[in-house]
Amino acid sequence: MEALTIHALHDKLVNKEISAVELTEKFIARKDTVEPDIKAFLSDNRKNALEAAAAVDKKIAAGEAIADMAGVPGAIKDVICVAGQNTTCGSKILEHFKSPYNATVIEKLNALDYISLGKTNMDEFAMGSSTENSAYQITHNPWNLDYVPGGSSGGSAAAVAAGEAVWSLGSDTGGSIRQPAAYCGLVGLKPTYGLVSRYGLVAYGSSLDQIGPFTNDVEDCAIVLNAIAGHDAKDSTSIPQEKKDYKKALINDVKGMKIGVPEEFFVEGLDDQCRKALEEAIDTYKKLGAEIVPVKMPHMKYGLAAYYIIAPAEASSNLARYDGVGFGFRADGTDIVDMYRKTRTEGFGPEVKRRIMLGTYVLSSGYYDAYYLRAMKVRTLVKQDFDNALRTCDVLLTPTAPDTAFKIGQNDNNPLAMYLGDVCTVTLNLAGLPGISIPCGFKNGLPIGMQLIGKALDEETLLRVAYTFEQNRTDLKKPLPMGEVEL
User: Fold this and answer.
1) Are 396 and 260 in contact (CB under 8 A)?
2) Residue 162 contacts residue 481 (beta carbons within 8 Å)
3) Nearest CA to 144 among 454, 459, 463, 443?
4) Are 413 and 436 in contact (CB under 8 A)?
5) In DSSP terms, which residues pair with 260 in a beta bridge?
6) Paired sense of beta strands 167-171 and 73-77, if any
């Protein structure tokens, strides 16, 4: 049996085949059953979820129209503020912090009668690629519990892949939606920078961060994007534009479209079975009438190094506010400087400290020009490479990650190996472009992800190309690894 989807459950709710309360209760029961093994959630929101579900049932009973997402249980990454709920960012320093306000995406979802079963686990402050850096627990990959679900949005990905939620929200600074989507066999979208408001998203790298969805299929991805996209005056980087209906982009046709394949993403280090699955995907597109165009992007090889200067630099600035004074965890000290030091020493985990120190170093006097300024120049060259490639192509096709998920603990003492896993994803954040990861195969029972990259604000083309592949490669459809919720 295939995974349940937002659009299928919406039809069941509207046709009164199941009530929103019954549906929510079934997902709560599922969560209670598998959560001890998966550890995807940091909080439980069942009381509010059941109340929201009852309100949806009331609307249906009154003959009112309901939104596509209304009454369908989801989950929210614990880096997105929800009023009155803990927002820990997976960190001890925010262990007891309750958000006083809603993020804009939550306000938008509230207006559509959304249901959240809780906040999901993540790498601390979104810094990591495995969800092993959480201060609270390690999340497990539902396809194999010995493996990571990816990160930093691993809890959001695992919750959907384990059937604990139908959809979820994550955030993506350097691949934190796309990589866990690949590892967990889901559709994961990083929208164009500025398409979705960052207001209420706790910042890691402000010029890189973007909120996006995890779903079981491309149609659901379009539904969630419809819900969260749009201009927001509270976010100075939000792009004013007319509201779009991304479901209209779901056309099963790529005839005549040009799909670019950058050779720089298919280099040494890409696993052979992943390469084979991607080559088969390229053949699928050829058979469907798309033109495959080899492209060169010479500055991609510098992207990872530039990212790991720019992102920590921004993190160093953004995380300066966690000092034990205004909010969050506070350690006792003999004076204010001692209190600062102890608060940040005890409150932050090792990966966050590593990135703060790296970022502070590259911004310091005497090193700013040598590192940060040079990295920003490389960022411009990376953006130009994408612009040049996308002038001749509709989308680009690359791996999402060089390999499938790795074992929990495998890279514990090797941060460099962990960083290298982001090589296929970080450049999109530097360029601010949209990217989507969709399943394209399996290796030893673990999903392989394919990344499609689009032009800025052209999510429609991206969704169309992804949807066409999904509709024509039904051989890749597998039941959820832990079984399906019985309705």
Assistant:
1) yes
2) yes
3) 443
4) no
5) 293, 396
6) parallel
Q: How far is CA 387 from the centre of its chain?
A: 24
Q: Of 50, 177, 182, 161, which Cα lies nearest the Cα of 122? A: 177
- Using CA atoms, how far apart are residues 45 and 347, in angstroms rounded to an integer? 25
The pTM score is 0.97
| Secondary structure in 3-state letters for the chain | CCCCCHHHHHHHHHCCCCCHHHHHHHHHHHHHHHHHHHCCECCCCHHHHHHHHHHHHHHHHCCCCCCCCCCCEEEEECCECCCCCECCCCCHHHCCCECCCCCHHHHHHHCCCCEEEEEECCCHHHCCCCCCCCCCCCCCECCECCECCCCCCHHHHHHHHCCCCCEEEEECCCCCCHHHHHHHCCEEEECCCCCECCCCECCCCCCCCCEEEEECCHHHHHHHHHHHECCCCCCCCCCCCCCCCHHHHCCCCCCCCEEEEEHHHCCCCCCHHHHHHHHHHHHHHHHCCCEEEEECCCCHHHHHHHHHHHHHHHHHHHHHHCCCCCCCCCCCCCCHHHHHHHHHHHHCCHHHHHHHHHHHHHHCCCCHHHHHHHHHHHHHHHHHHHHHHHHHCCEEEEECCCCCCCECCCCCCCHHHHHHCCCCCHHHHHHCCCEEEEEEEEECCEEEEEEEECCCCCHHHHHHHHHHHHHHCHHHCCCCCCCCCCC
Q: State the number of CA atoms in the 13 A half-sphere of 103 facing the CB.
A: 28
- Which residue type is seen at 227? A
Max Cα distance, the chain (Å):
71
User: What are residue 170's phi and psi, to 5 degrees?
Assistant: -130, -175
Determine what percent of the chain is predicted with pLDDT higher than 70.
100
Q: 41: which strand partners?
A: 120
Backbone angles phi, psi at 169, to 5 degrees: -110, 140
Distance CA 339, CA 162 (A): 42
In whole angstroms, give the CA distance from residue 98 to residue 122: 17
Domains of the chain in sequence order? 6-255+462-476 (3.90.1300.10)
Judged on CB neighbours under 10 Å (0-12, 13-18, 19+), 55 is: middle
* Span 42-91, pLDDT tens digits: 999 999 999 999 999 999 999 999 999 999 999 999 999 999 999 999 99
d(CA 23, CA 12): 10
Name the residues annotated as catalytic: 77, 152, 176
Reported as a single tens digit per residue, the pLDDT across 181-190 is: 999 999 999 9
Q: What is the number of residues in the chain? A: 487
Residue 408: predicted pLDDT: 98
Determine the average pLDDT of the residues in 304-310: 97
- DSSP-derived pairing of the beta strands 187-190 and 435-443: antiparallel
